[in-house]
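Example 493.
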Amino acid sequence: MLKIGFVSAEIEPFVKTGGLADVSGALGKYLPRNRVEMRMVTPLYAQTRTGVHPFFPVDYMQDMRLTFGSRTIHYKVFTAKLPGSETDVYFVDCPELYHRASVYTGHEDEYLRFALLNRAAIEIFQHMHWAPDIIHCNDWQTALIPIYLKTLYNWDKLFAHTRTLLTLHNVGYHGNFPLTVVHEIGLGNFMHLLDDMDRRQGRFNFLKTGIIYADMLSTVSETYAREIQTPDYGFGLDAMLAYRKERLTGIVNGVDYGTWNPQTDPEICKNYGPDTLEMKEENKACLLNQIALPYHFHQPLMGMVTRLVEQKGIDLLLPVMDGFLYGHDVQLVVLGSGEERYERYFYGLQGRHPEKVRFYEGYNNSLAHQIEAGADIFLMPSRYEPCGLNQIYSLKYGTIPIVRQTGGLADTVIPYNWETGRGTGFLFKDYNSDGLWWALDHAVTTYGHREAWENIMRQAMEQDYSWKKQIKHYLRLYEKVSGQIETFSVQIH
Ligand code: ADP
Ligand code: GLC
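Predicted structure in complex with alpha-D-glucopyranose:
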């Protein structure tokens, strides 16, 4: 039995801002079915949905404290089962740090919020006398565990055989702070271990520190694993990632077909599958009715469900979408929230095309399912995309994705070939508006050929990105990390 301590800033269904939560929740659910004992650690935010499963205080961890510089932080630990599994999730309860208006903040003490998570995870394992074979860290918020284990906690024999794996879900977010925070988070005596260039520039980078000290690195698609070793995608970490490339691997995310399957989805108007494609049209009619757009038989509806941030390629839409909507009989529904400039853009687009465009600002899981079921085409023109989940859901719903050929989008969508009839979506290569226009035009024209389109839909719906399949790659990686990977110690004095 492999023992995995899994630490993440988001776990579905407790708290979610993006795909990290989906992936954490799914790994917690599916890995323990495969000879893995998993214990998960995450913060107890104000936003954590505590109603989803009974929550219990862990009686011997109600008076926990950690010293950060001159400050002592008190916290308590609660536990709950991850729904649909026997996995125990441990919640770090520290209202002064985690009860904020949003899960992530731009507040000055953001570094402390997540330094606490890293150290609390280690100390929770200590209190349980539980020696994980691997501590699986995710993104910058948990990237300090490797260096903490090699420094502050290297006295503890409990972790003598523990290895660390850091999964990079998004290299665009670093956790970059002034160098002064290093003293407060307990690494002041280990300045010499930190990245030289950052030190000289007076900065401290959580993610880079994790990349340097984790025993193994993974990311969420093979293409992204290669891309992040180049300056265009590495966000300044490319050289470090290339240096550690022997320890870097890419595993495409799975999706939970228990939740995302048009044949069983309770959120949609009519369930359908590859043999009942005509029902999809009913979902479209239903969705259009609900969002007060006119329904026209066999007129393509495009959908987007996304965080509205630069990563998602919204900038490409700006010079293209008005012209495309004026020139084509298509409609567009967008669900998303994020940067105000993008929200303003979509409100404007809706204002200029009231019969064709609907924009829903916010986060709405039910509407996300209805868009997957009701739209014909799913738009995801990302500037970069480590994996992406929505295009994988779209495949299952026969909602043909238009994506840029990058990261996980390139690894999961097969370009449609008009001559062979093979393919599951429309891809464009260069990050520019011409590419997007070409792909939109190509998709909408193909949509007009019913037989060809249904053929694409069926191929898309047949794709299998179930966790059942993808989990095997994680198991192999865990075995490799726990068995074969030599860890390295550091000179701490
Ligand atoms: P990222 O993690 O970069 O945001 P992913 O495609 O991996 O991108 O995952 C996004 C997840 O968040 C998906 O499960 C998607 O359905 C969900 N999501 C994103 N925005 C919204 C929204 N506005 N309403 C509902 N669900 C959303
Ligand atoms: C990140 C990435 C997304 C990926 C998700 C889960 O948020 O932006 O592409 O699917 O993490 O790994």
